[in-house]
Design a protein that fits this description.
- This protein has 484 residues and is mainly alpha-helical.
- The protein has one domain: Serine Threonine Protein Phosphatase 5, Tetratricopeptide repeat (Alpha Horseshoe), CATH 1.25.40.
- The protein is 45% helix and 8% strand.
- It has 19 helices and 9 strands.
- The strands form 4 sheets. The protein has a 3-stranded antiparallel sheet with strand order 2-7-6. It has a two-stranded antiparallel sheet with strand order 1-3.
- Helix 3 packs across helix 18 (434-441), helix 9 packs antiparallel against helix 14 and helix 14 packs antiparallel against helix 15 (372-383).
- The longest helix has 24 residues, at 95-118.
Length: 484
């Protein structure tokens, strides 16, 4: 045995001495090098957050109520956000998990951008650079929306934002500082506008990437938060230059004829034209949202689906029990750790942008400009796809209907139109967390009541609990916490 070992060493030494230079010139695995546009594209698949915000965003909003029942789930990822408490959970569907998934996506985008910028032929990487820039902007935008105060031009230059990371990490435990909300928005806008100009839409499955349409959809949301109505309209019109919204919205007239499993399998398919951007997330939301204690009753869901005196009859409701009701929107793909295991990971394909939001964004921008007839046209386009046997003579919204319906809340016509639009939007995005964004932007108060209907808490317009707390791990790394 000793002779064999010595012989092997001698042979190895001979080979090394005769050709060491050639050997050392070769990389052990060239697949790790981002040296082609296709390899950068493969990396960009990971530049989208794989965490979901649906659970905590929906729970914080005014959609759920206390559906106290022995058969319902009491999970801190639902309970704590409903009570506007810090969520100590760090696994899927928690704010911490979402924070980490966003910065993981940002890291992938930055790695891709470094490869694009350092390539000997950068022109060949234009499309990849565009997608990376928009993806980086999106993840930062979602972070600043949840973990900072909502954008206000009067205070944005002093309100703490979140770290805007633009370079790949090259050291362990790199220190980051919170920039202002104004700074973060400026960086988002720069990345977004540059990125949109580079995207070329050459994707095998466009719904999983920031296409031009999806990027303009994101821009319409961003500028709505920034209160730039003209930019919202501009990007909406670029997303849908043919103004063909009705043909590209969720076909609820068809969905309502499907079985529950049929809806789960259909609504988040990449082939559905309403889905402008889909993302695979690690989440239990699809199995739990209808079973949480703080969810929807039949009466609450009925109120949400009947805004402005018009029942959205094409959107079906389903019951878990006599107290808990919901709308089917999600499908879970469960991957076992091995073929015989009972444990694994639950994945949800979720829509990050859909056609309906883009239409709503333009309608709100028109309202901001006082263009009420244009806003009505967009709102009625939406209603035509949500009311069974829609008749424009009887089911369309009018200025008079809106004034009458909201007369007890406001005499201001602009505010009344805004309330009408937000009610339509609230109904469309039930279970998807979008209501929380409108609560933030419009500083809508949220009231909590017990099972007897008695008010027990209220989240006012300036309540610091509107800010999701910075994760403990980030605080320990030196990032300033939120004053909740």
């Amino acid at each position: 045995m000793k002779r064999l070992s010595i012989y092997f060493i001698l042979i190895a030494s001979s080979v090394f001495n005769s050709g060491c230079q050639k050997y050392l010139d070769q990389l052990p695995d060239q697949r790790t090098q981002l040296n082609t546009p296709s390899k950068v594209s493969e990396l960009l698949v990971t530049a989208y957050p794989r965490g979901s915000y649906f659970t905590f965003a929906e729970s914080m909003s005014d959609n759920p109520i206390d559906n106290q029942s022995a058969v319902l789930i009491e999970d801190n990822r639902n309970v704590n956000p409903y009570r506007w408490e810090n969520v100590e959970e760090v696994n899927q569907d928690s704010p911490t998990y979402y924070w980490n998934s966003c910065y993981t996506a940002i890291a992938a985008a930055n790695q891709a951008l470094e490869a694009c910028n350092n390539a000997p032929n950068p022109q060949d990487y234009r499309a990849q650079k565009g997608e990376a820039l928009v993806a980086r902007a999106y993840a930062h935008f979602m972070l600043v929306t949840f973990f900072s105060k909502v954008y206000d031009p009067a205070t944005a230059n002093t309100d703490p934002g979140i770290p805007y990371v633009t370079e790949p990490e090259t050291v362990v435990l790199k220190k980051y500082e919170r920039q202002t909300v104004e700074y973060v928005y400026a960086q988002i806008e720069r990345d977004l506008e540059e990125g949109i100009s580079l995207i070329n839409d050459n994707y095998a499955v466009p719904a999983y990437h920031f296409t031009s349409k999806a990027a303009h959809a994101f821009a319409s949301r961003f500028y709505l938060f920034k209160r730039d109505a003209a930019k919202v309209i501009e990007h909406t019109n670029q997303a849908f230059p043919a103004n063909n919204f009705a043909a590209n919205m969720r076909p609820w007239f068809t969905y309502r004829t499907l079985t529950a499993d049929g809806m789960r399998n259909t609504i988040t398919r990449a082939s559905e034209s309403a889905n402008l951007l889909l993302a695979e997330t690690v989440s239990l939301w699809s199995r739990n949202y209808r079973n949480y204690r703080y969810s929807l009753s039949q009466a609450q869901l009925g109120r949400i689906l009947a805004p402005v005196g018009t029942s959205l009859t094409a959107i079906p409701t389903y019951s878990v029990s006599s107290t808990s009701y919901y709308v089917i929107k999600f499908y879970e793909h469960f991957v076992r750790v091995n073929v015989n295991a009972t444990t694994g990971t639950a994945y949800n394909m979720v829509p990050l942008f859909i056609t309906e939001e883009v239409l709503f964004n333009r309608a709100e921008a028109y309202i901001m400009q006082g263009k009420y007839q244009e806003a009505l046209a967009d709102m009625n386009t939406y209603l035509s796809t949500r009311v069974v046997n829609y008749n424009p003579n009887t089911n369309s919204l009018t200025e008079l209907k809106i004034k009458t319906y909201y007369q007890t809340q406001t005499e201001d016509i602009q505010k009344a139109f805004t309330l009408a639009l937000l009610d339509l939007k609230r109904a469309e995005f039930i279970h998807e967390g979008m209501r929380w964004f409108d609560i933030l932007r419009h500083k809508i108060p949220v009231v909590r009541r017990n099972t007897s209907g008695v008010q027990i808490d209220e989240l006012g317009p300036e309540d610091p609990r509107r800010l999701v707390q910075i994760p403990e791990s980030a605080i320990q790394a030196g990032i300033e916490l939120n004053p909740r």
